[in-house]
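Handout for the seminar on molecular recognition.
Each group receives one record of this type.
Step one: identify the two inputs.
Step two: read the structure output and locate the region that could contact adenosine monophosphate.
Step three: write two sentences on what you found, then compare them with the reference statements printed after the record.
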Amino acid sequence: MDKVKVLVVGSGGREHAIVDAISRSKYVSEIFCAPGNAGIAKQATLVPIKDNQVKELCAFAKENGIALTVVGPEVSLAAGVVDEFTSAGLRIFGPNKAAATIEASKDFAKDLMARYDIPTAAYKTFSDYNEALEYVKAGKFPVVLKYDGLAAGKGVVIPETLEEADATLKDMLLDDKFGHGKVVVEDFLTGPEFSFMCFVDGERVYPMAVAQDHKRAFDGDEGPNTGGMGAYSPVPIISKEDEEFALESIMKPVAAAMVKDGTPFRGVLYGGLMKTPDGVKVIEFNCRFGDPETEVVLPRLKTDIYEVFSAIVDGTPMPTLEWDERATLGFVLASKGYPGSYDKGYEIGGFENALSDEAVKIYHMGTAQKDGKIVTAGGRVLMVLAYGDDLAAAQKKALEAADKIECDNFFMRRDIGWRVL
Ligand code: AMP
Ligand code: GLY
């Protein structure tokens, strides 16, 4: 068997977890990552090309005999990286630009769900400020306002009062704070959220282990929304029946709908779902692996991930996905100030100490190398996770390891997993 070279696009914890999973494949001889980070550099050769430099990425893959490219971030997908590679005859894992719209436009996703009867919150889309305000006035609070475009997890506001809602609608529709676009106004749902990621090739849908993210910045789910402050898998409050429903009544019908609509999806379809008192409903779709969910899900995947990617890219039979029985749980160490503004360049130490337990893994989310040292280079900096026989054991180990990391500019949530522990 000739081993192959693989390129991973992106620079966060998700990409570190993908690189780590690929490094366990028996089919892969060499991994490249563009642009990567200081942690990924230990397992892959970094390539100085940004994730939205689609033509440069394609040229690199061609010149270096890359057999498969795996895309992490939505910006690369929305920029058409898959379309570019595919027309150059290169193998790439991820949806094309048309299919990636399921994440890039909330309105596209809501419209598809309405037309195909997929359970989700009632909604209406507006481009006019006055009409949106009238609609909100006539409805209940809290209300959910979603900017209709990519906003790095910051485009969703849930006002409790009319004044707050008015200010947000002004930001979104009059002042174009996130860009010029529409707003989806949606009913507020309640219940625990969970992340259901599936490998999808047209109508074929293969679920991954369920995970739960923690979007709020502070303990007890307080503070502003972030990209995610920690995650764990499995999620005991989500039953086998919930999972079955999510697969059969949400993910499979959506995949089939996209085929029917002429925008077939190929890659990871991420269902951000909520278990409401009226059953499981869709909060959002993403067109890629979740971050930080991937950091706790892929360490549990025992199947060779190169075979999984190939089955989707080539339309060949999918091997049975096998999962580690152990639980995984991880804490995000973030720069003080995140998700607002923060400083970078703080030295990070204590890695060896934290990694002295074999059940611990550290994925770098936003780090760089500077004068031989590892320094902070993003809002979310590290994901420290551990395996455990159950979630409580994983939490204890991961917390002990996180406490061994030294950095003057970190904060973290200490309650990851609180909903089930
Ligand atoms: P999204 O980017 O659409 O996932 O929204 C970000 C977060 O806002 C979600 O993870 C939820 O916690 C919350 N959210 C979004 N839509 C709703 C909704 N209809 N009801 C309640 N909470 C929501
Ligand atoms: N963890 C949420 C996301 O990846 O969008």
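Reference statements: Residues 213, 228, 286, 290-291, 293 surround glycine (ligand 2) (CB under 6 Å). The radius of gyration is 21 Å.
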